[in-house]
Design goal:
582 residues; alpha+beta; five-stranded antiparallel beta sheet; two-stranded antiparallel ribbon; 25 helices; 9 strands; 8% strand
């Protein structure tokens, strides 16, 4: 031990994963930065208190420590913490490690036994404060300790606190019963294997799609070069069937149409015929994707999209006027590619590998006007309706340009929020792009772990609870589209082992968050179309999270019957929700 002593750190985690910062004002009427879980780090170990008692993990352990995350429900009561949001040095201690270990063992058999845990009154932060006082003579920040009181003083806080306490008790009982079950480990292994297989398949599809896209771009660029040579020849030679000849513009249009027919008819592949894809692997992949799409279409509810919200020609022309003279030659090439894709229907193969960097500049460059980013997003909203937009989206899996921008949704001006919500809503038009919205693979952005599904959820919640009527309308559509995605295709063995209601691929992680936003939305007087979309979403979330969401509806309200009699289709959805509440 040095003369200064051993450093004592406080690790601070946000259990809401950023949700409190986003919607606490809407739900509670006051802003809360996070729902804090803390731990003490000293002597190379991390210590925290939960319903299991005092937990101890070495910092060099390959698997991060775990905690009880009540809002994730009884199907996943323990989950990986990941990186702390903050690390605070509390001071240095002269207490020997052996004395500290005796002290911890004493706490674990007395005031900090697992049975003494209370979500609001005697929790991980109480433990951190106690240990900090013992080691360095000071407690942890008061704002962390006072958070439960702040929540309970809000109009709805007492109700939420009661709900969380009840939910925590249910989780405790579930965990106790589950651990006695011989199928517990088998279930965990099956779930983890399913997740690994899902991620592996996702990556395989991304790689194959990118290879196909590159091959297709090279193939079609060659055709375009040949087309330009034919255009030049036609411009020099009058049309034999016309005394006045044909204009170059007409010749170009005629050649472009001929090229389109040639591409569609598939006149030859790399081996000289047959109209097949470039490789047998790609052909097998395409057949697999086709079968999967057909199966999913049978189960899919029609999404709510906005096909006529903007005019792509008008938006593109306005964008060109705003950025004219401000682009590099490479960016002008990308602008021409965007023109070919959106206005000449030449397919996503027209977009180069650096296209998304160009989009990133249009969205984020402060030297350009805000209108430029709005026009860009409106053009992308039209692109989202195309069935091959997924090839563009797959380019974003490295830099996450689109999703990082969307993650800052609540900091954007209103016009950009509306355009971004339109883009993300329209991405649900096609199965492949809607799947992309739900990817669970995480990356780091602004010191937070985020994923496509987390960003999509954030945009949905903020849009739904916005003051602007048009943005609320688009938010209701996104929530509807999220809730109405198809069910997970699980193997029969795993399906039998999962608890009733665990039918969703990703939504059991976000169903509670979205449901809380829906209940807040119901406190207003939305029009019938929005009530239908959101009530339908709530009915689906009651199926997906069959214990947590119904409890939330009963504890927080308003009752779904508030909208009874609005229309037969709304009444039908109310009946489905009410059935789950019994």
């Amino acid at each position: 031990m040095s003369e200064e002593g051993v450093p004592v750190l406080l690790y601070i985690y946000d259990l809401s994963k950023g949700l409190a910062d986003q919607i606490s004002t809407y739900i509670l009427g006051t802003h809360i930065e996070g729902v804090w879980h803390t731990s003490i780090v000293v002597f190379g170990q991390e210590y925290f208190f939960s319903q299991e008692g005092i937990n101890e993990y070495p910092l060099d352990q390959s698997t991060p420590p775990k905690y009880l995350y009540v809002l994730q429900g009884v199907f996943q009561s323990k989950t990986v913490l990941g990186e702390p949001q903050k690390k605070l040095t509390l001071g240095h201690t002269q207490v020997p490690q052996s004395v500290f270990q005796d002290y911890i063992r004493g706490l674990g058999t007395s005031t900090f036994r697992g049975s003494e845990y209370h979500l609001l009154k005697h929790n991980c932060n109480s433990f951190s404060n106690e240990v900090s006082n013992f080691l360095v003579g000071v407690g942890i920040p008061s704002d962390i300790l006072q958070l439960p009181e702040i929540i309970q003083t809000t109009p709805i806080g007492a109700t939420i606190a009661s709900f969380l306490e009840h939910l925590t008790e249910g989780i405790t009982n579930f965990r106790r019963n589950r651990q006695e079950s011989p199928e517990f480990e088998q279930l965990n292994s099956a779930i983890e294997e399913a997740r690994r297989n899902s991620l592996a398949l996702e990556e395989r599809r991304n790689v194959l799609n990118e290879k196909l896209a590159r091959r297709e771009r090279k193939k079609n660029k060659k055709k375009r070069r040949e087309s330009k040579h034919r255009i030049s020849a036609d411009e020099l030679t009058p049309d034999s069937g016309s005394s006045e000849g044909s204009s170059p513009g007409r010749q170009r249009r005629r050649v472009r149409m001929a090229d389109s027919v040639e591409v569609i008819s598939g006149n030859g592949d790399d081996r000289g015929g047959g109209g097949k894809l470039p490789s047998e692997v790609a052909e097998e992949f395409e057949q697999e994707e086709k079968r999967e799409r057909e199966e999913k279409k049978k189960q899919r509810d029609p999404p709510v999209v906005f096909k006529n919200a903007v005019d792509v020609q008008e938006e593109f022309d306005a964008l060109v006027g705003l950025i004219d003279g401000k682009m590099t030659p490479e960016e002008m090439t990308s602008l021409e590619e965007l023109h070919q894709y959106m206005l000449e229907d030449e397919g996503s193969w027209a977009l180069g590998d650096g296209f998304l960097n160009f989009i990133g500049r249009l969205l984020n460059d402060k030297s350009l006007s805000e209108e430029a980013s709005v026009r860009t997003l409106n053009v992308l909203a039209c692109a989202a309706l195309k069935d091959d937009v997924i090839l563009l989206l797959h380019q974003d899996r490295r830099e996450h340009i689109l999703m990082n921008y969307a993650f800052d949704f609540d900091r954007l001006p209103l016009l950009q929020q509306k355009a971004l919500a339109l883009f993300m809503c329209n991405l649900f038009e096609n199965l492949s792009s809607s799947e992309w919205m739900l990817y669970i693979s995480e990356w780091q952005y602004c010191n937070q772990s985020i994923s496509n599904i987390r960003v999509t959820t954030k945009v949905a919640v903020n849009s739904l609870l916005a003051d602007d009527p048009e943005l609320r309308d688009r938010g209701s559509a996104i929530v509807h589209n999220l809730a109405c995605k198809e069910k997970m295709h699980q193997n029969k063995k795993l399906r039998r082992m999962l608890p009733a209601g665990a039918i969703s691929k990703v939504f059991d992680d976000v169903a509670v968050e979205l449901s809380m936003a829906l209940l807040q939305f119901f406190n207003n007087s939305p029009p019938e179309e929005q009530v239908f979309r959101t009530m339908k979403a709530l009915a689906r979330f009651c199926q997906i999270s069959s214990q947590d969401v119904p409890q939330l509806v009963q504890m927080i309200g308003p009752p779904p019957t508030k909208f009874s009699g609005m229309s037969p289709r709304v009444d039908e959805q109310i009946a489905l929700v009410t059935k789950k509440l019994r």
